[in-house]
Structure formats: C-alpha cells, structure tokens
Amino acid sequence: MLTEALVIMFFVTGIQLMVPILLAALGETISERSGVLNVGIEGSMLIGALVSAIVGIKLDSVVLGLLLGSAAGVGTGIILAILYVARGIDQIVTGLLFNIFALGFTGLLHNRFIGGQVGPTLSPFHVPLVGDIPKVGEVLNRQNILFWITLILVFLVYYLLNRTWWGLYARAAGERPHAAESGGLNVNQLRYPAVILGNVFAAFGGAALVMSSAGGFVPGMTAGRGFIALGVVVVARWNPFLVLASASLFGLSQALQFIAGQLDFLDGVPDQVWLALPYVVTILAVLLSRGSQYPAAVGIPWRRAVAGRA
User: Fold this and answer.
1) In a domain, 307, yes or no
2) Dihedral of the CA atoms 258, 263, 267, 269 (nearest 10)?
3) What's the pLDDT score for residue 275?
4) How many structural domains comprise the chain?
5) Residue 40 half-sphere exposure, CB side, CA atoms within 13 Å?
6) Mean pLDDT for each 10-residue chunk of the chain (310 residues)?
7) Domain containing residue 263
8) Do residues 146 and 15 touch, judged by C-beta distance below 8 A?
9) What DSSP string runs through the chain?
10) Nearest-angstrom CA–CA distance, 233 and 243
11) What is the pLDDT of residue 285?
12) Residue 17 near residue 143, CB atoms below 8 Å
C-alpha cells in the first residue's frame, strides 16, 4: 500500500543515490567540454571510494575520508590526462582498460587492508527554514551535508564553464581546437586541468557513496554509476542544471528497488528488474536524446602536427 511515509522514503533514498551520480556527471561535463571523453570515470569513482573507506576506517574521520578520497582523483586524473592528452591514446579503449584495472586494484586492496570493516558515516544535516517546509522539509532534513555541497557545486561548475576565461577557452578547445590554437591558446594545457578536475569530481562521488551509506567498501560497489553519469551528461546536453535534473531521475529510478517490495501491486515483479531499471532508463534516455550532440572535438586527440584534421 502506498503511504505518505513510503513516498517520503522513496524521495529520501532517491536523492541520496543521486548525489554520487551527479558529482561524477559534473566532472564528466567539465572534461567533455574541453574535448576529452573520460570513460575511465567509473575507475576514478572506485578508487575514490576505496581511499575514503580506508581513511575513514583507519583514522575514524569522515572529513579526512572525503578529502583524501577526493584527492585520489588528482592521481587518477594525472594518469588519465597523460594517456588521453599527452600520449593521444584512444580515449574509449583507455578508459575501459582503466576501469578494469581499478576494479581489480581496489578489490585487491580491499582484501588486504579493510575486509569487512566499516567506518563512520555522515549524519543528516538540517538547514534552517528550508528544512521547515512541510513535506519537502521531511525529505531534505534526512539528507547529509554532501547533498547541499553538491547543489552548490552545480552552480560553481556552471559559472566555471560559462562565466570565466578558462571555461571559455576550454569550451573552445572542445569545439574548435584548431581555431583555439590559431588564437594563441594551448589546447593540451587547457585539457589537462579539465581531465584532472573531472576525475576529482568522480572520486568525490565515490567517496560520497561510501560516506553516505555504511562507511565501508565492497569491490565493484559503484555498480556502473560512472557509466550512468556518462549517459546523464548526454541527456543533459552538457548543462550543469540539466545534469542535476537528469541525475535526479536516475537516482529515483534506483530508489524503486527499496520500496517496490512494500507495494502490493508490484510485489510479483522480480528484484532483478528493479536492479536493472536505472541502466534501462539510461539507455532509453540516451536513445531519445536525438538533439544532443557532443562537442565537435570530443574524443579526438590533439596534435599540432595534424592540426588541420582536428
């Protein structure tokens, strides 16, 4: 039976599940705007999640876990930037191989350092006035501070990409790298920080996943959220505010698995259907996003010697 409490739980859970996807998608938006398709975002999320779990368990600190988990994205970002930008290796193949590496690497370190241990997690964060709104406040009061930080980051990413000189130049590198280079810009130097910052966001998403759940790490716990983030960016057409809306849709679709068993009219639906639903929604949403076009130079390595072909 559908009750008010069940509806509230649905939205509370959906928003919590939205946050890691939204963070990863914001990072991917920055990266793709500069012309780099970072398929390795799933691996960065996994590594960020593992580091945050280890730090949280060993040091018993949520703050350090989030900070160092996010900082792990600097390391993964540098590695991927060297491969994508400096070496000019195929971005899709490189990203997929990096994801496979991260899955095995994090699984090995999990068995070695933390096993089944769990650490501290974030508590709900009450925002005055907003949390007092009837019904809406009941949902928002159960969110932790990462939800509010992520909302602020949506505005900051929009401002970065659309209101700063770096954002303007980075978008030029993603759309017309030859023209950008002719105008005196260094395309690769614009793409390096974009890839690194994008991976920091992804690692932060992995850390948020850990600190918003049980405080522990399970191998493969991101469960394809990085790939969902790739779809979110396409559906949102690289607009941070539409990224927020799209990520909300996928977070809510994931939340259905937690309430479906309590609804009589859905009781006979196999659990596997609800587990697969977010990925089905992602595929359908991308298929229906016919108006979405990648920035013209996304996925194309830039080399000055063949600038006329970029």
Assistant:
1) no
2) -60
3) 86
4) 1
5) 33
6) 81 94 97 96 97 95 96 97 94 96 95 89 87 84 94 97 95 92 91 97 97 92 93 94 94 86 75 87 84 85 58
7) 8-292
8) no
9) ---HHHHHHHHHHHHHHHHHHHHHHHHHHHHHHTT---TTHHHHHHHHHHHHHHHHHHH--HHHHHHHHHHHHHHHHHHHHIIIIIS---HHHHHHHHHHHHHHHHHHHIIIIITT-B---PPB-PPTTGGGSTTHHHHHTTSBHHHHHHHHHHHHHHHHHHHSHHHHHHHHHHH-HHHHHHTT--HHHHHHHHHHHHHHHHHHHHHHHHHTTTSB--TTTTTTHHHHHHHHHHHTTT-HHHHHHHHHHHHHHHHHHHHGGG-GGGTTS-HHHHHHHHHHHHHHHHHH-TT----TTTT----GGGGGG-
10) 6
11) 87
12) no
Q: How far apart are CA 172 and CA 158, in angstroms?
A: 16
Look-up: residue for tokens 């999320």?
45
Query: Residue 310's pLDDT is what?
Result: 42
Q: Provide the CATH number for the domain around residue 112.
A: 1.10.3470
Burial-class residue 186 by CB neighbours within 10 Å (0-12, 13-18, 19+).
middle
User: Quick one: pLDDT at residue 308?
Assistant: 43
Give pTM, 2 decimals. 0.93
How many angstroms separate the CA atoms of 163 and 304, rounded? 28
Q: Is residue 308 a part of any domain in this protein?
A: no
Task: Give the pLDDT confidence score for residue 304 in this predicted structure.
Answer: 65
- Report yes or no on 304 lying in a domain: no
Tokens of 142: 């159960």
| 96 domain residue, yes or no | yes
Q: What local confidence, expressed as pLDDT, does residue 13 receive?
A: 92
